[in-house]
Amino acid sequence: MARTEFAKDPVYGFWQYQKLPAGEYARVDLFCRTQSIAKLTGTFLHAPGYDAEVIAQGLVVAESLRRHGIGTKLLQALACLAIEDGVTTLSGNITSPHSLRIMQKIADSEEAITFYDNTARGDYLELPLSSAQAYDSLTKAGAYEVDQENRMLGFDVAVALNSGQRYGLVPPIMLNSARHVAPAYRLV
């Protein structure tokens, strides 16, 4: 099978829920065909007094299948779920120019992307960067990284979501449903 055939595969997902003292969270694991080919985890956070947020983590695409839109399709499926759930922010840690380009495809404008650094004291410090400056910085930093798969340099990035972005996004095929979870654990 040609490598590009995997890019045509649907995205599948399954939910896991947990109630926490400060709120609740749901984790969704998304994948194409099998988790060894491509996967992404999204953690939905719902805490009293805070806007709902989803954090994208662990985007991995098999090296031989990269650059065919599979990572983009996974992140777009996560954004689709987030918008359906009323989430206003999709965030994650960006360590490569390619990951930044994938996140840019979710944003509906340059103003919808905000970069942060939380390495100094654990506090989030907004960085006054444009996407082009962030891309250049990641490219330069990548030249000094020895382990390209486990990079330590990068930024946290937040993308503002709105319901108008739903057009064109394809939701994943969920293998389980929120209906199978006790009401106390369901997302509102």
| Alpha-carbon Rg, integer | 17 Å
Mean pLDDT equals 76
Kindly report how far apart the N and C termini lie.
42 Å
Second-tier CATH architecture of the largest domain: 3-Layer(aba) Sandwich
How many strand segments?
9
Domain count: the total is 2
What does the main sheet amount to? 9 strands, mixed
* Oligomeric grouping of the chains: single chain
Describe this structure in words.
- Helix content is 21%, strand content 32%.
- It contains 4 helices and 9 strands.
- It has helices at 3-7, 70-84, 97-104, 131-142; strands at 11-20, 23-32, 38-46, 53-61, 89-94, 113-117, 125-127, 155-160, 173-174.
- β1 and β2 (23-32) form a beta hairpin.
- α3 (97-104) packs antiparallel against α4.
Notable characteristics:
188 residues; alpha+beta; Aminopeptidase; nine-stranded mixed sheet; 4 helices; 9 strands; 21% helix; 32% strand; disordered C terminus
SSE topology:
Layout: H1 3-7, E1 11-20, E2 23-32, E3 38-46, E4 53-61, H2 70-84, E5 89-94, H3 97-104, E6 113-117, E7 125-127, H4 131-142, E8 155-160, E9 173-174
Parallel strand pairs: 1-9, 4-5
Antiparallel strand pairs: 1-2, 2-3, 3-4, 5-8, 6-7, 6-8
TL;DR of this structure?
The chain is an alpha+beta fold and 188 residues long. It is 21% helix and 32% strand. α3 (97-104) runs antiparallel to α4.
